[in-house]
Amino acid sequence: MSRELFDQALQAAQSFHASNPALSGFQPWPDDITWADRASMPAPCMDLVQTQAGDTACTHSHASETLALQQAITALAPHVEWRLTYTEEEVGVDFLGRFGWFELVGPTGHFHSTQARMTVGYWGDGLYYPWHEHEPEELYSILSGRAEFAAEGEDTLTLRPGDTRLHASLQPHAMTATDQPILCFVLWRGEGLADDPRMAA
Predict the structure, then answer these.
(1) How many angstroms separate the Cα of 172 from the Cα of each of 4, 138, 198?
(2) Domain covering 2-192 assigned CATH 3.30.110.40 in the classification
(3) Of the candidates 26, 40, 32, 169, which has an alpha carbon nearest to the alpha carbon of residue 111?
C-alpha cells in the first residue's frame, strides 16, 4: 500500500510541477527517476503533518494541483524517511519536535535522481528557522499554511499556498512560520544536491 502512496505522491508532484511556471521554468522534470525503496523513519512532526498542515486556500491558477499534492503528502506522511538535520543546540527542543523533512526525489530520496532534488518540509506554527545556506539553488513552493521568508539582500515576504521563493546558491535565508504551520515543496538544482543545509556563519 505504501508504494502506491509514493507513486501517487510522485504523480501529484509531477502535475504540480507542470502546472506551476515558476517550478517548471526553474528545473525540468527529471527523466532519470527510479524507485529507491528506502525505509521509513518516524519523526515527532509526522502526526502534525496529517492533523495541522495549515490553510490550504490557494488563489493561483494551479490551486487544484497544489491541493492535490498537499493531500498526497498528508497520506504519505507515516511512510517516509523523516529527517531533522539540525541539533538541539542549533535549533532547540521545540523546533525538533515540530519540524521535519523528507526527500521524495533526489540522490538520497525515495525516488532516485541525480538531476534534481525534491523535498517536502514541515514547520509548526510560530517556529523560527534560523539563517542557513547551501550550495544548490532552491525554489520553495508553499502547499499549505503561511510564513515569512527572509533572504540576504532581499525584502522579507509572507508566502501563502501557491507562492514561491527563490534562493541563490549560498544565499543565507531564514523563515518564520506565522500563526499557522507550513508545508512546503522544495526544489534544488545545481551542485551539492546530496548535501544538507548548514547554519549560516
Answers:
(1) 37, 11, 10
(2) no
(3) 32
Contact 124, 99 (CB under 8 A): yes
| 3-class DSSP state of 33 | coil
pTM > 0.90: yes or no: yes
For 110, which DSSP code?
A: S
On the question of pLDDT at 1 being above 80, the answer is no
Burial of 158 (C-beta count, 10 Å sphere; 0-12/13-18/19+): exposed
Cell output for 172: 543565507
Amino acid at 63: A
The grid cell for 145 is 499554511
Q: Where are the domains of the chain?
A: 2-192
